[in-house]
Structures are given as C-alpha cells and as structure tokens.
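Entry 14. Ran structure prediction on the chain below.
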Amino acid sequence: MSETQNTEAAAVEPSVTFADFGLAPEILRALTDQGYVHPTPIQAQAIPVVLQGRDVMGAAQTGTGKTAGFSLPIIQLLLAHANSSMSPARHPVRALVLTPTRELAVQVADNVKAYSRHTPLRSTVVFGGMDMKGQTTILKGGVEIVIATPGRLLDHIEQKNVSLAQVQMLVMDEADRMLDMGFLPDLQRIINLLPKKRQNLMFSATFSPEIKKLANSFLQQPVLIEVARSNATADKVTQIVYKVEEEQKRDVVEFLIRQRELKQVIIFSNTKIGASRLSRHLEQTGIKASAIHGDKTQQERMAALDAFKAGQIEVLVATDVAARGLDISDLPCVINYDLPYNAEDYVHRIGRTGRAGASGDALSVYSDKDERLLADIEKLIKQTITRGELTGFAVRARGREFERGERGERPQRGERAERGERAERGERSERGPRRSESERSERAPRSYGAGPLPRREKVDPWFLKPYEPSNAPRPEANAGAPNGAAPAKPKQKIAALLGGLPKPQQS
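Output, structure tokens:
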C-alpha cells in the first residue's frame, strides 16, 4: 500500500441527500420506497469514493449503514451493463461480495435486491447448509451481483457453476471476522481467480495487524474511511455488569428478563452447548426462547430468526458467529451470558442495540474467573462499566460460603469465627444445655475439608493393654533338668506338609 488517504467521517449535514451523489433515478426511487433520504456518515464518505473507482478500506461497526455504503455505488456503476436479455452470457458476474456468515450474506442480499428492484440487474446469494441445486440453477442463469460465503463459493467454482473471469468489483464485508474464522486460505484462492484489474472494497470493524497485512496484499492505494474506532460504543447504550456466582448465571439471566419485562432480547454465549442449555433453561421456566449456533441447520436458524422478528419468541440465544450480521431494528436490550474472550467482540455485541440514535441496554453477568476479561473490555472502550447489584444474588467472598439465611443453608466450618467464640458460648443457653458425649457421638460426622471422612472401626481392648514382660526364668537348652526337675517335654509337631499329623502307632 503505497499511499493511503485518511478520511474520517464526521456528522453529515442534514441538507445532504442521496440525490446529491448523482445516483440514478431507479436507485433514488428504491431509496424512497425504503424511506431513506439522508445518508449516514459512512455512506456520505464511501459512496463518492466508490463512484470514483477508488479502492476503499473502511472501518465501521455493525449498524452504521456500511451495506448501503458499498451496495448503492455498485448498483450505480453496473447500470451501464444492465440489460433484459434472457441469455446467461449477457449476465456475467461483475460484482462479488464476500461475507463470513450465512446471516450476514442474506442481509446484504436483501439490501441489494431492495436497492436494485427497479433495475434489470440480477443478484443472488449462496451459502452453505442449503442444497446446491437451487443455487446452481440461478448461477447458471446469469447474475451480475453474487453475495457469498467463501466456502460455498469455492464449491460452486469447483463444479464450474460460476465464473469469476469478468468480476470488476470485489467487496470483503467484516473482513476481521473472516480472518478470525480461518477463511484466509479460501480468500486467497478466490482472489487468485479474479481479474487483476478490478476495484476492491474492504470493510472491517477493526484494523488489526492481520487485517492490514491482508489489505496490503490486494488493495491499491485505498482511501481509508474511519467512521468509528474499534473501541467506540454507542452513547445511548446503558452498560451494566453484575458480578454473580458462576452457578447462578442462568437464574440471573432469567431474573433480568422478568424484572425488566423484556420482550425482545439477544443473549450471547461463548459456546454452542452453553447457548443450547441456556435456551432450554429459559423455556422450562416459561420464557419463549430459541438458540442459534453453528450446529443448527440453516433452516433452523432462519426459522428462529424469523420467529424472533415476528415476536413469536422473546429471547434469541446466540454465539458470536451465528449472530454476526443479524440486523434487527429496535432491539432494546442485549445480555452477555458470557463475557467474550476478545474485548472487541463486546463492542460488536452491544452494537446490536442503541442503533439509529435509539437508546438501549447492554447487560452482562460475570464471575470471579472473568475479572481479566472485564478489565480488557474496559481498557478497550476506555471507560468503567457501571456495577449493578441484584437482590438475592450476593457473591460469597473467596473461600467462604453464603451468609446464613441468604439461601437457607448452614454456614460452613470456619464461618463462626466471624461471630466470635463469646457469642457462640452466649447463645448456648438459649439453645439448651450442652449435649452429653453420647448425644454428640450420634450426630453426623464433621466434614474435614474436601477429602473422605475418617473411618471409625471397633478396636479390640486387648491391643490397648501395655506390654508386660514375663518374670519366669528362660528354660535351659540341655535335655536334663537340674535339681531334680522334670525333664523338658519335646516340642509337639504342629503339622506335616500336605499330610497332616502322623497317626500314633498302636502297640
């Protein structure tokens, strides 16, 4: 990358409209149908640059309007090739949009179709988890714009269902997520199949060293458009974290949903099994919930998303990969069931609420083991998140159990030390006289740490007697007994090997 022009998007003047960009009447009509008049900051910066044919490296968070920022100028530039011919050869792929997930691909495809509805341009979306036959039929029929996930696109290329020989524009949407998901080898294969002369647009929420390295490999003197830094969070999003015990987290999430009477909330889990278990727990408590993650089929994920948008379910539990690209308007709240391992994912998550100037809540639950993750998040966003407290969900101090009466449990051994030995003796008169030794022995044995209880076995009293040496003189070894004593008797045989004692001979 030899030269880079930095353009930081500022607030757009209210007087600026989409008509000021010189867009075709067909596109302006589609925007009017959608109710759009004024562009967002990234749209105001990106559209003129893309129309000039420049490469773009855009830093934009979810919900900033970046999809229209590249879709509208692509449609405008491809109108020169638009035609109504039925021949597939007249409709080669001229623009390719790559996305990391199926959901984001579907969202981009819906926007492209909406903006090009009054033009002859054709577009389609291809992604995994669906039968390839329907996608193959559309591709072979000819389309100018293809929105795809990298893996499924390569499947179609290998089966010669699509050709990229005439691609003029390449878009990588959420490139940082594609690298996180291990798509770099697929991206390199796809780039090598494209014509050398083309326009490249890359959008990413962050500009990590890996992203910059990827950009250097194929962008030509790009214009850098930075709308919001990676550590920026929406001003109207109220962020609260609640410290709880790890085993309480499911109950805390249920409590927050009921207390706040949430009817539409996305809950983020770090694992697929965690998302499934939380979803089942909420359903068992009477909350309409569903989970979406990588183990779900595409039909199941789309059905859950449609039900969530229609209000048929109240809670959508999702992993970061499955939720990437979800565009749900007027989302009042998101909950982090798990704090993300990557602090930047926290910004992505809470970016789902508080869009378009609306207010929203971002609630998070965490335990002692997540302290480092929380510190990383606060360091990234450069602010201290408000600590909240929940009645009935107190956190026990390290090495102690819950206080008496909190959950009806007895205090563990060692907890009495806080009350003092005098208080313990003073209370004994109220509880009654001291128990006898026999009464105390009938009580359950005490717990000695985490190991097994000591065994109690009956002991023969004979083993408890002290050793008493005998005073009798030791007999001599000679056969005769002195002083007229009787001779020593010979030792009796105890047993004979295998044969027992010999039988005495009869005289």
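The first strand starts at residue 5 and ends at 8. Will compare against last week's run tomorrow.
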